[in-house]
Design goal:
Shape of chain B: elongated
Number of strands of chain A: 0
Distance between the termini of chain A: 58 Å
Radius of gyration of chain B: 21 Å
Oligomer: heterodimer
Number of helices of chain A: 7
Radius of gyration of chain A: 19 Å
Order of helices and strands of chain B: HHHHHHHHH
Structural class of chain A: mainly alpha
Distance between the termini of chain B: 48 Å
Strand content of chain A: under 5%
Largest interface: A-B, 34 and 34 residues
Strand content of chain B: under 5%
């Protein structure tokens, strides 16, 4: 248990920032970070998909949601990686590329760990309120909080890189913009994450293929012209 | 082939455009080899861009995909071909010392930066192509992606022009060897770490203002290259392919690039 928790603890404290991790351990390997994303993402996803219980067809939603959370993070990451590589080369930061990728993956691992720690809240919410809309909003708030908390982690892990070369700051800002841009659309595509009990359980929602930004812009437009 | 990719990598890293590497007055790259790599990168982005038409047609027509794949590299090479004579002449008129060969190499290197950034954003464009049904959104996304890559490419062009003009000066007015940091300076400023001393490919060389030649040449080039590039893109339409219109290799000539962008921003809201 201790061997399992220690690397997570060090990750959350910002492993290589000199913020005194509990015990000096070798820096986290990329493979282990990916394993964290998979493991904790699956965990939160499963809880999130447990909204309608597991009676009948609903158990499928638990599995679908569990798979979707790590897929959302890793898919967005992979799509955004090539441009990150090229721009970091252009800015003369190729030597640090390995380290910055590790920092970015560690941040995403942080998101899933934080989300997983929120999972009991989500379960309690499901037990207390049965309204589908409020479940959606609650999960959105959880994702928002986890992303915000992970910003702190990102800043901590990135501090030594920025101290070495201030161009890293610009690069990580550009990364966040691209990542959010792709991630929002990815999240939109992977709906439903929770699964309306009134609808049949499916991996993808029928006729939901579309563009998140287009939908939002249209909503804004409709509000303004009404 | 691999060797040519290596050359592109040296350009991106800024190794090919260091002051010490530019003493000969030119970038040490082979135009032919680099063009081959650029062709591949252009085809790659074209493929990502053309994916939208395949998805929008329900996987029935591949003509637009094929056309777009060819059109993207064609856009860049044709723009270079059309603008090169005038770019060279302006450059000579302003009194820069660049030879015709080094102008060619410089422009191909800048295209290299543009196309690499473009191709690297291809994954995101392909992702949106597959998942979006809005034609206007795809057009605007592609305009933004082209603008980002164009911006970085032009930044590279400007800094390399600047460096070329410094490297060719017979004697640098400020000799860097004479600069001795005082004791106070030495304690407050940490010594730069190895690897960070060299400026990156798109960064200005420390402590030097842009020369007036560089600035004039660059302004003229931007205007010529930008106008011709935008118009060439307009002539080569359609790149993405309106799902409501049948496939056509080229569209009839009317309107212009800037009017169309405004039109699609408007469209996205409705």
């Amino acid at each position: 248990m201790r061997a399992f928790l220690l690397p997570i603890d060090n990750l959350l404290r910002g492993e290589e920032t000199g913020l005194t991790p509990l015990e000096p351990t070798p820096p986290l390997r990329l493979r282990r970070l990916l394993l964290f994303i998979l493991m904790f993402g699956l965990l939160y996803g499963a809880v999130m998909g447990g909204y309608g219980g597991i009676a009948g067809d609903r158990w499928k939603q638990v599995i679908f949601s569990a798979v979707k959370v790590p897929f959302l993070l890793l898919g967005t990451f992979l799509l955004s990686l090539p441009s990150f590589f090229v721009v970091s080369t252009l800015l003369g930061l190729r030597e640090d590329f390995g380290q910055s990728v590790r920092a970015l993956v560690a941040t995403q691992a942080g998101v899933t760990i934080i989300l997983a720690s929120f999972a009991p809240f989500t379960a309690l919410w499901y037990v207390s309120f049965s309204d589908y809309q409020s479940a959606v909003i609650f999960n959105a708030v959880m994702f928002g909080l986890a992303s915000l908390a992970a910003q702190v982690l990102l800043r901590r892990i990135y501090a030594p890189l920025i101290a070495r070369n201030s161009r890293h700051r610009m690069l990580v800002r550009a990364w966040l913009i691209v990542y959010a841009f792709v991630g929002i659309q990815m999240g939109w595509l992977l709906r439903p994450f929770i699964g309306d009990p009134a609808m049949p359980t499916r991996f993808f929602r029928a006729h939901a293929w579309g563009n998140a930004y287009e939908v939002v812009l249209r909503m804004v437009w409709n509000l303004m012209t009404r | 082939m691999f060797h040519w990719f290596k050359q592109l990598d040296r350009i991106l890293r800024g190794e090919a455009t260091r002051l010490s590497a530019l003493r000969a007055g030119t970038i040490d790259v082979s135009v032919g080899g680099l063009s081959a790599v650029l062709l591949i990168l252009g085809l790659l982005y074209g493929l990502c861009m053309g994916l939208f038409s395949v998805i929008a047609s329900g996987g029935r027509t591949y003509a637009q995909l094929l056309a777009t794949t060819v059109k993207v590299p064609a856009l860049f090479f044709l723009t270079l071909l059309i603008t090169f004579p005038s770019l060279y002449v302006f450059n000579a008129l302003v009194g820069s010392r660049l030879t015709i060969k080094s102008v060619m190499r410089l422009l191909v290197a800048a295209l290299g930066v543009m196309l690499t950034v473009l191709a690297s954003l291809g994954t995101i464009v392909a992702f949106f192509s597959v998942s979006t049904s809005s034609y206007s959104f795809m057009i605007l996304l592609n305009v933004v992606v082209f603008a980002i890559s164009g911006f970085l490419g032009l930044l590279f062009l400007l800094q390399t022009l600047h460096r070329l003009s410094i490297a060719q000066e017979p004697e640098p007015p400020i000799a860097p060897v004479e600069h001795r940091p005082s004791e106070g300076e030495a304690t407050t400023i940490p010594p730069p770490l190895p690897g960070t001393t060299e400026p990156s490919a798109i960064e200005r060389v420390d402590g030097r203002m842009l020369g007036s030649h560089t600035r004039v040449v660059f302004r003229i080039w931007i205007i010529v290259f930008g106008l011709v590039g935008a118009q060439m893109g307009w002539v080569l339409r359609p790149f993405i392919g309106n799902p409501n219109l049948p496939f056509a290799l080229f569209r009839p000539r009317h309107s212009n690039f800037f009017e169309a962008v405004l039109h699609h921003i408007w469209n996205l809201f409705r």
